[in-house]
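User
New here, explain this?
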Amino acid sequence: MKNDHNNRWGVSPLFLKNWTLLLLLVLSFSACKHDSIVTNGELKKPASDYFDFSTRLGTTLKIDYGYEGYTAPFAIYLENPYDESTGLLKENSLSIFTGFTDKHCKYDGLITLPIGTKKVFLCSDAIGIPSSIELEVLNGSVVYTNDASAPQLARAKTRAEESINIGSHKSVINESSKLYALYDTFKSSGGDYNWETLNTNVPALYSLVSNSEQLTISSTLGELVNRVQSALRGNYGKKQNNTSYIATESNINPSVLEKTADGKDVVGAELDLVLLDANGGMHNAMGYYYYKTSETLSASQLKALPKYMVFPRTTKGSPSNIISARLQFFGENYDQEGTDVFPPGYSIGWMLVADINGFLDRNSLSSSANATEINDRINTYYTSGHAIYSNQSANTAGRAGCISIYDRKSQRIIVGFEDFTFPDNNSRSDNSYEDILFYVNASPIEAISVEVPVVPDAKTKVAEENSRGTLAFEDIWPSGGDYDLNDVVVEYETIITHNDLDEIEKIESVYKVVHDGAKATDAFGCLINGTVGNIDADASNYNVREENNQFIFTPSAIEAAASGEIFKLTRTFAEGSRPIKSSYTLNINPFIVPNYVAGEKNRTEVHLPKSTVSPWANSRLLGTKDDAYYINKGGDYPFAIDLYNVTNFEVVSETRQIGSENEYPYFTNWVESKGATNTDWYQYKSR
């Protein structure tokens, strides 16, 4: 190859060698990865010929939640992050990727997964979207489409399987309490519902609502949900206190008018209860009651009204489909056959019965429970005083159980319940008031009246993405040493905070030296290539910031390992200069400095394979002895490795090569296949 170059350029071999050396050394400072380096004045084979020892896998992610006008947050986990018995997020659950869909509730982009990943969990706390969906990684892609004909919908499950009872007549739950059910047969098959059959059986009561339904000329259902999401969950994954939206029954309970605003007589109104979301920590039953608008009822009178349960088991997590239930009117004396039409002069109130004990005792009903079992459960909690009313005076200690917000564009009033509203459990309340979210559709819409509640302000949506892993270094570079990769071992976590405009607002890098097997005093630090942002001094912890954006976290890895000290580097980005997350490559380049001397330049640095050195490094060492791109010349071992998503890594025994017997023997197979096989080699220290 050298002679071909000389012939092509028509220059002497010595000139070419010197010119190439100068050019490539300059490039090594301006690029993030080596293209080639010089060994003893001769070009080696290019870096692309060497296996890079990467434990990361670029994967295509495609999502279609089926809404129009809805920008929804989502997260990717490697394990189901929710406790199946409670539906609550497990402690220390970390998302490996977070993002926001576009305004069509779709996402199409690349994510990074650990090598060998076979399945992921697509999760979201967004209103009207399944909370946790297990998806396969197939041919480098992860795909989810909310389509009734798509096979993955049948496999889609919420944190606890959603369970909506569908039926066609009134049945008794507790006659003395005047508690009734408007459902009969409980049907569920692991989250796979035959909606067409069910809706044919009971067309008057239940129907599905299209995610893209046009509510008004200026708003689709998706756009409505987007605005509700922004108001009630401004920061993704972090519930907020929504007590500012607490409302009285005049803002919550719709009333059927005698006359419309323009003076027309009202014959009656059909009322549909549209369930947007179920985000409580337990199985909550929801129903309604009605009374004459002209009457002022006491707490005891309100509790004595007949109550009709419509959704008997709304589980933790949004259903895969938005469901509408047609409310029934049973006459002035509550003793007639049900009809779809509510006459003028009546108001409708709402009631939630909370499965408190089932939540606290981890004794939730199974998804296959029948209607009788569910009715017994509802009766138990109702008679135990676990009912919450939209008429505040009927609640324990007069507590507010509901919030209400108004969306101008869709002209809908959204109501939310807080399911912890009891004397012995009120301290557990997070005051989010979004454990059940719903609104009412009326036909004709002008036939009902509700006092307009608060109109919420729009808020920016923010998400946090976590990645973690382990860095392992060999400090006898460039000589080669024993390749035990245990001289400095560091666990790391990177938290990227970004908004729904795809802008990165903050990057937090956290490091902890967990092992030092070196004989030398090795420093640990990093180089930031490219955009740095603003260093938050109050949230950072490092030893020294050198010029050229080099940071030394600790001058002595062995002392850091002994002390357990945690090092942090927090960078913020001002509006107008924020990196775009979808096109951003993390630009932190970690390294160690063997025999570190503070302030010394022309030093030895050990980096990850194919990475550049800092300006303070002795670049003349590159490619000498056994080095090729921080890989040994044989291509068998790295001088450093990033074990993505691996923590608590059991280090290789001193002076034993990684890949040898009882020292991760499958490492060798992985390297020889250039990453094609044995991708989980780091899980097996011995065969």
